[in-house]
Description:
The chain folds into three domains: 3-23 and 161-264, Phosphohistidine domain (Glucose Oxidase, domain 1, 3-Layer(bba) Sandwich); 36-155, PtsI, HPr-binding domain (Enzyme I, Chain A, domain 2, Orthogonal Bundle); 281-586, Phosphoenolpyruvate-binding domains (TIM Barrel), CATH 3.20.20. The radius of gyration is 26 Å and the shape is globular. By secondary structure, the protein is of the alpha/beta class. The strands form two sheets. It has an eight-stranded mixed β-sheet with strand order 1-8-7-3-4-5-6-2. The protein has an eight-stranded parallel β-sheet with strand order 15-14-13-12-11-10-9-16. The chain is built from 26 helices and 16 strands.
Amino acid sequence: MSIQVFGLAVSKGVAIGRAVLIASSRMDVAHYFVDSTQVDAELDRLRRARDEVATELQTLQRDMPADAPGELNALLDVHLMLLHDETMIAATKQWVRDRHYNAEWALSAQLEVLSRQFDEMEDEYLRERKADIEQVVERLLRSLQRSASGTAERAAGQLQPDFGGEEPLILVANDIAPADMLQFKRSVFTGFVTDVGGKTSHTAIVARSMDIPAVVGAREASRLIRQDDWVVIDGDAGVVIINPPAIVLEEYRFRQRQSELERARLHRLRNTPAVTLDGERVELQANIEMPRDAQAATEAGAVGVGLFRTEFLFMNRNGHLPSEDEQFECYRSALDLMQGLPLTIRTVDVGADKPLDRMTIHELRHEHVLNPALGLRAIRWSLSEPEMFLQQLRAILRASAHGKVRILVPMVGQLSEVRQTLAQIALAKRQLTDAGIPFTDAEVGAMIEIPAAAIMIDRFAPHFDFLSIGTNDLIQYTLAIDRADEQVAHLYDPWHPAVLQLVASTIECGRRLGRTVSVCGEMAGDPAFTELLLAMGLRSFSMHPSRIAEVKQRVLRADTRHLTERLASVLQDEQPELAASRLLRATR
């Protein structure tokens, strides 16, 4: 039976494929594909985990006090029986053999299958046995995590499974952790569906960056969709169709072909300079997350990298932060791929929707944060860990001797933070000078993503060489909207007059003070905002490489003289989005 699920359209296009589910779990579970040569090793990990858990349970039984309730011993017997049940173990092994899931993912997938079966049982006693299976699986997962010791890191490069299936795959989950999204980049998945999330949640941003369709905030999608169901994602309408009839499937396949033709046409613009009709030259730069992404930036025609998100070097590492040398090699390799074009490296921006893994968080901060978006994140976290911060700054400065590097500081909101940050940069330079290590005097910029910084931009700007507006967080903090929460995601509005006023005033003030201003948030890569940002005076955009061609097409068709004449009317309108569309029609 065909079912439709509605959510938020966050990445345009159509995706059709078989569902691959990431099951919900009370534990953090690594998800990655293993190579065919690693299948036996993964099966061996499963066997060792089962043996270890069996020994644990048997030891608990042996050491049980004489006066312990008899039910407790019976419960341990049930857990031992489940542990050796072939329905669970054989099927888990099958996920590894057929789909090339890592052991943890395979175990979680089979738990989801068994949980559904127990939920459908009529007998209440049997339904409640689901909790026993969950407890056994959690023991197995903990054992597998103890034995991981870098397995996920070694498999990180194996993003393309080789199980031979030609059917496209759709990833379905309650939510997808940033570390998992990093693993899934350049993988076989042609679309994403999540139960939670908003238009600028990390899943949405990465889906857009990968230029693949996605729907988030689809509530019960991961419960309604089963493994291997046929799924259609309509990324334009925010609709997910489960097991569609043949006529619907054919219609969406036709739309897919049309999108591919349009993408090919736009790709031909990659070497065309971005110059408006009235001769204004515009910089179209790229946002990247890993060094290898720099190649995609140059291939897309970017004139530089306006945002290198370094936090992804710090994530999914089982509590071990990258060394200075490791960071230096990453930054230098990105520079090599940039072929002389500038590279803007943002200092680590962990927190909120990009936490470090749990081990690292607990080791560095023994506390529970109720609202991480307003807590110790970005430059606040870096300043609270001066040794880590100095290590990163030295690595960036060392890389500056090998190409054009700029340093970007995230989430500045206090002048005291600005002074501390600049003092740390100066200290890093002295340390390198004393050690005889070469570096250049890299420009330092501030990310304007807190309303306080935007309002006081005339006081912040003189301390920096350039400014970069992070519209994602600027919108979130201006409107008091958690951008990852689907319950309030409909209130997240980049067209809100207050947001546009802050963006416009920041661009105007930066230009007046002689500072280059760029926008590196999602707004920069959204063609709906291209003409409006040009009218505000923006001449530097930074976005994912996949968005450059479409934005460049809008730049080539724009006349900034006519756009600027009508800017005030848009900013003063109660409905700026409608006013902007009228502006666009009037200037064409």
